[in-house]
Amino acid sequence: MLRKFSGFALVLALLCGVALAADPVHTLNVLDMSAPYNQAIRPLLIWTLVFSVLVLLVTGGALFYVVSKFRAEEGDNKKADQFHGNNAVETVLLVVPLAIVAVLSILTADALAKVNKTPKKDTIKVSIDGWQFWWDFKYTDLGVRNSNELIIPVGKPIEMEINGKDVIHSFWIANLGAKRDAIPGQKAHVTLTATKPGIYYGQCAELCGASHANMLFRVIALPPQEFESFVSKAKAFKPTVAATDNGRKLFEANCAACHAVQGTNAKGVAGPDLSYFGNRITLGAGLWKNEPQKLHDWIKNSGELKPGSKMPAFSQLSDNDVSEISKYLYSLKIDQDFSKYPTL
Ligand code: CUA
Description:
Elements: H1 2-21, H2 36-69, H3 87-115, E1 124-131, E2 134-139, E3 144-147, E4 149-153, E5 158-164, E6 169-172, E7 179-182, E8 188-192, E9 198-204, E10 216-222, H4 224-236, H5 246-254, E11 282-283, E12 288-289, H6 292-300, H7 302-305, H8 319-331
Parallel strand pairs: 1-5, 4-10
Antiparallel strand pairs: 1-2, 2-3, 5-8, 6-7, 6-9, 9-10, 11-12
Helix pairs in contact: 2-3, 5-8, 6-8
The structure holds dinuclear copper ion (CUA).
């Protein structure tokens, strides 16, 4: 018995060691109280924890007490006392759980009322689509589209409408509190507000296929003026390279059926929007740092890097052609640096 337990403890210790040794690129923290959403559910979270610990201590303590006090001794053949019913104990066993459930119900109703409250005005509306295995963001009123990196202003409520395009996904940013399932044929609504600038880590939270774990995204919260500047630059965006540029021609011949670049003939909707791709911090739906070598490998055979990727392999393209396409993609840029913000 003891040997079995020490084996289990060893495995647990090893797993903890691996987790601690891993280089954290982000901090998923549902207790990040800078977000109003997380603040709204904090009392519920804390009281649920308090009650859980109390129930564990009281029931566990009672069990240990009874087992050690009334344990049968060697040669002890006396029959245990038999009795029927104990009104005091039964009343406590009924009233205490009822009281706990009542308190948690009130806290739940209060939290739900707070997080589901839709601000009447001065919001930014974003329509969010979950695809295997990436995210699409359309700013309904601003006429701007971006994929995999949601750029928002600090302090302003973002009214999101979330939809699944193929299977069920779940849109989740732990530190901002927003989480809703993205279900095909349904539109879920949630409002989030970021209170400090930074790059927040988002993750699909519903098993959706081979690359569920790789279906990430980022939320980049900018100071309000920077956001205004982003919106006007994004609306006015068009490529700086001419339509005769070789990389652009190769891109439009090979990639435009699925990808869109604002201000060009590339108008595909089945894949991420690649306007101002040069500003992206990440690649492969939040999976890697946006680096030329990774992009090169991605174009050649994305399925090898990300299992289940719907993007076909372009191994028929020469290394030189792929480099030309990459060069074109990195030229798609607005004059703004998002990478300078802290990763939260
Ligand atoms: Cu999409 Cu999991």
